[in-house]
Amino acid sequence: MGGTTRVLDCRGLHKSYGDRKAVDGVGFHIDLGETYGLLGPNGAGKTTTISMVCGLLTRDAGEVTVIGEPIDVGQIHAKRWIGYVPQDLAIYPDLTAEENLAFFGRLYGLTGKKLKARTNAVLEVTGLADRRDDKTEEYSGGMKRRLNIGIGLLHEPRLLILDEPTVGVDPQSRNAILDSVEQLSGEGMAVLYTTHYMEEAERLCDRVGIIDQGQIKAEGTRRELVELVGQRDRVRVVAEGDVDAAAAAARLVDGVEEANRSDGGIDILTNDARVILPSLLRSIADAGASVKGVDVVEPDLEAVFLHLTGKALRD
Amino acid sequence: MRAAFIIAGKDLRQRIRDRSAIIMGIIAPFALAAIFSLLLPTSQSFHTEYGVVDLDRGPVSALLTSQVLPGVVEAGFADLTEIDDRASAAAMVEGGEMGAAFVIPEGFSDAIASGRDATLTIIGNVDAALATQIAEAIATGYAEEVNAVSLSVAAALGGFTTVQPGAIADLSSRAAVFEPSILVEEAEADSKQMSDKTFYSASMAIMFLFFTAQFGILSLLSERRQGTLPRLVAAPVGPWTIVIGKALAGFVLGAVAMTVLIVASTLLLGADWGNPLGVALLALGGVVSATGVSAMAATMAKTEEQASGWNAILAMSLAVLGGTFFSLDRAPEFVSSLSLITPHAWFLRGLDELGSASGTVADALPAVGVLLVIGAATGAVGLMRARRLVVGR
Ligand SMILES: Nc1ncnc2c1ncn2[C@@H]1O[C@H](COP(=O)(O)OP(=O)(O)O)[C@@H](O)[C@H]1O
Ligand SMILES: [Mg+2]
Description:
The complex is a heterodimer of chains A (about 325) and B (about 400).
Chain A: E1 6-17, E2 20-31, E3 35-39, H1 46-53, E4 61-66, E5 69-70, E6 82-85, H2 97-107, H3 112-125, H4 141-153, E7 159-163, H5 171-186, E8 190-195, H6 198-204, E9 207-212, E10 215-220, H7 222-229, E11 233-241, H8 243-252, E12 256-262, E13 265-270, H9 273-286, E14 289-297, H10 301-309
Parallel strand pairs in A: 3-8, 3-9, 6-7, 7-8
Antiparallel strand pairs in A: 1-2, 1-4, 4-5, 9-10, 11-13, 11-14, 12-13
Helix pairs in contact in A: 2-3, 7-10, 8-9
Chain B: H1 2-18, H2 20-39, E1 48-54, H3 59-75, E2 78-82, H4 86-94, E3 100-104, H5 108-113, E4 121-123, H6 129-157, H7 165-191, H8 196-212, H9 215-226, H10 228-234, H11 239-269, H12 276-299, H13 304-321, H14 333-338, H15 343-355, H16 361-390
The complex binds adenosine-5'-diphosphate (ADP) and magnesium ion.
């Protein structure tokens, strides 16, 4: 445990509202450069968990450390390592983008040239540079969202926490958000990302915690989670020529569990399509069939969620 | 602490930008003070001329002419002229040169001393009804005194009809007892030293201060509505720092509004607030109390609308009770006692003390103290509740 790469460590988080256990024993950790997803439906306890991680909310039990430093409502020093992007827009409509950034930058201790430079950088990244002097109430929804995220990046945090950042966002802005999270992660930032969109968790997250009713039901890489359910990838190869021989050859490839001739091609069951795909395709070609198309149907986290909780992610 | 200033600075920028604070804090109270002091009849303070015709020139009449009436003059609401005869006094009152005249007949002292009826006459004029009424009240009080003295003299002398010199001395010493009722009037007249312009400027300033100061803590509720509150708390800034930053913004708004109003009403309306140091201390006390009271009111509410509604009701009730609309001089005793729970009453009282003829900064200090205590007590409750609002539970 620990080491220099551990960015966030939280353990045994509990929070009840009256009789309702909003968070019931949640714990996970995030390492440098890792993107961790909390995937769960509305009301699962994602925001409550994040609120405790950020020290916004008094907790009933549990511990949170960021870069080895404890965080709580009253323990504020380590809060500087976190860039927090709330689920709802958190910008001042009557201030300009630049004023919003300058205000939050100062709260994080940025001043003078450094503040100016970071403000400019964020305005650039969010594409708001030419609207910097306009009040944010005049912005489009997408612009507000971008600024909302930009404020979280302003002080160059070690851990970026995004709470359902794509809810209510048009597809284009949504893509831009996902791209930038991927980029930041690639630059080594640790990210905690909550969502109820399975595709986002699959695309962005190195590891995912599946959360429901205040508990993490399962955790791991996408593959680990899927294996938990015992599902396999289904690869469908569209082929012409000697398809029967090709199917027989495919069956011999390491990692293939089943390969059956179907009309127009071969249906293959494997536990990791991505790994075996190159040798699979070579075997098929060597057997005298020409491949016209490949379609990999991976079991998804939706299926995992269904398996774990008996219900769908989205209601 | 640096962060508290950053938060307060941001809030002030927002308040200046939306102009609500400027309107509430400066424009509205100044306009009302100007309207009141320019349109309402100036000065209810009363002044008249009294004449006295002393045909007796005895020891009993001297009590009136050299003690009672000079007391009235000293109290500042009448001037006194000696007139030789009754006919010219009547003419002067008739002609409006005099509000009323006292006529002491010849042999008045002797009559009193020997227990006979004696009549003191007031010549009045219906056109100067108030002056006449006051003259009658003075004469009646005087007569009661004299009667009481002559009765006690009669008793002491066991029915003798001649007044001994000692009895007269006794009479003068009773005159001293008469004085307190004059002193009461004097105190009332003294409180009128705050001119109408000053009174309206001061009362509008303190009333609207309770609207201005609310913008401090109230903005916590707008931060919560806007979703920016969690972002503030997520920053490396303690919950108290946030609360103090908010309260500081309210305090600064209140202090600036107060200062502008004092300067503007002095320069433009001709208000005379009094000793600058005393006024500054009272204004400070007023701003602290308004910040505290409105912090408490704001944190009792769930939404901004509710909070400003409650604050408005509280501000208006305190203003009315505190005598910012009507001077409490003539209010029943219990109302003026009750008014002392309001910062407004203490603020006005402090200015009154400061403005009285012999007023010094020290005279305003009790009121300043009470204002600071009210502010500290309500502010402690308000800030504690505000902290609970900042930290999610
Ligand atoms: N302040 C609160 N008071 C009462 N219940 C709350 C409060 N905040 C959250 N909850 C409840 O806690 C549960 C988890 O909520 P939340 O963490 O917001 O879920 P998510 O972010 O996953 O949608 C929900 O049942 C919600 O109703
Ligand atoms: Mg949520």
